[in-house]
Write a structure and sequence with these properties.
Length: 238
């Protein structure tokens, strides 16, 4: 037989014994090469040693500072820059209101636009502040009700700033409630000022004279007092 026509017997091939080649699940969530576990380790490492009470307290007074201390400077810069923009815009709108109103009159724009814009900036600042406090506590492990500050310490803290005692006591949701109520009362006081009155009048909203002169003053004075008393009592109790 010629060499080119040689026949080689390879034996019988059993197809039932075939095994699928196994490769490591590179993109699987549970794999060691995925990106979730390293990120989780980095997050836990960055926030190690920072308690939720410390992070929340820092963000209460300086939004974003709690994130920086916890090792999240990007979030800290976001909250600080956003709140700074809102504060600067409101200050510019109130200090330059005469020029802005004159310009809007030339451009045939309604005054209500400026009032709504300022109100929207104030509401946005409030939401950013509350989000900064809650998020700072969340990235450091969340609040722990069983490991809070002493009732006296928490009560004194809420006496200084309503909601601070709740942060130290480990009640993050109650802290958000009291700080939000403080923002609402501050907004009511702003609306009672001459500038606020003119802004409401531009929107067609006029506060009744009886509420503005008699009951209004009593409510404006009593509301923060009641808020402070409730905040101190809630923070000090177990």
């Amino acid at each position: 037989m010629p060499q080119d026509d040689a026949i080689y017997d390879l034996g019988e091939v059993d197809l039932s014994d075939r095994k699928v080649a196994g490769f490591p699940p590179v993109f699987a969530p549970e794999s060691g090469g995925g990106t979730r576990r390293p990120r989780a380790r980095n997050a836990s490492r960055s926030s190690a040693g920072v308690s939720p009470r410390l992070a929340g307290s820092l963000s209460l007074f300086v939004p974003g500072l709690g994130h920086v201390v916890a090792g999240e400077p990007t979030w800290g810069l976001f909250y600080a820059a956003s709140l700074g923009f809102c504060a600067a815009s409101v200050w510019a709108a109130l200090s330059l209101r005469a020029s802005l109103l004159a310009t809007m009159k030339v451009l045939e724009l309604r005054t209500e636009i400026l009032v709504v814009a300022v109100a929207g900036l104030v509401v946005t600042a409030m939401l950013l502040h509350l989000a900064a406090i809650s998020h700072a506590q969340a990235i450091t492990g969340g609040a722990d009700d069983g490991d809070g500050a002493h009732p006296i310490v928490a009560g004194v803290a809420s006496l200084l700033v309503p909601g601070w005692g709740q942060i130290l006591a480990g009640h993050s949701k109650r802290a958000t409630l009291f700080v939000g109520a403080l923002w609402v009362i501050a907004g009511a006081w702003l609306a009672a000022t001459p500038i606020g009155m003119r802004g409401l009048h531009a929107l067609g909203l006029d506060i009744p004279a009886s509420l503005r002169d008699d009951w209004g003053n009593a409510i404006l004075i009593a509301s923060p007092v009641i808020l402070w008393i409730i905040a101190v009592y809630d923070a000090a109790k177990r």
